[in-house]
Amino acid sequence: MAKAFKNGLKGITGYLEPAERELLRSLIDDVISMLEPEESASQDPLTALIGLDMDVQEPSDRALKRLLPNVMKDDDAASLEFRQLTERSLRENKIGALRAMALGLDKDDLVLTPADARHWSQGLNDLRLVLAERLDIRDDADAEHVHLMQDWSQAEDVESYLALVYNFTTWLQESLVQAMLQAMGSRA
What b/e sequence results for 17-43 when a residue is b if at least 16 CB atoms lie within 10 Å of its CB, and e otherwise? Predict the structure, then answer.
């Protein structure tokens, strides 16, 4: 069984069972595959190098749109222009955090540096955003309904399984954020 993250003399530490690490690896792989930009044969290499993507469009997948939202709700043209200038680097940043998180899953006992903790926090947040979208969480009532699912033996369908995974990642992120706050307090 996983142990909550704690701040201590070694830094931020935690523990995950092999099955829990594999679950997170699988989620990470899924989200990375969603975020990887499609390569275009006609794309200018210099444009790609500096992070521009003039062919980018608003995502049609709701979960991907939650990870890469429009910046201006009432101005589609301005949102598209901003997306062209920033989306490639945003995707790469998110993928980098998820890959860094995956590297940490190679050991049972997790010992996170401050940079590792930031990557884990970013990665867990992105995993939760995708899961929340798949579970159609729109408000506090939806979230409360999902949080009622706590018993793995009651997972009878995909939705109840996803609810349990969402609750697990939420708990993991909450314990990490608390440990990060304690670490900040002890350095001050």
Answer: eeebbebbeebbeebbebbeeeeeeee
pLDDT band at 25 (very low <50, low <70, confident <90, very high): very high
Please provide residue 75's backbone torsions phi and psi, each rounded to the nearest 5 degrees. -140, 90
Chain CA centroid to CA 141, Å = 22
Show the beta-strand stretches assigned E in 28-156: 109-112
Q: How many CB atoms lie within 10 A of CB 60?
A: 7
pTM score above 0.85: yes
Which residue's entry shows tokens 């996170």?
A: 112
Task: Give the model confidence (pLDDT) of 28-64 as tens digits.
Answer: 999 999 999 776 656 666 666 666 677 788 889 999 9
pLDDT tens-digit readout, 59-80: 899 999 999 998 888 888 898 8
User: What's the DSSP call for residue 6?
Assistant: E
Pairing status of strand 3-8 against strand 109-112: unpaired
**DSSP-based three-state secondary structure for 53:** coil
156 in helix, strand or coil? Answer: coil
Element (H, E) at 88: helix 76-104
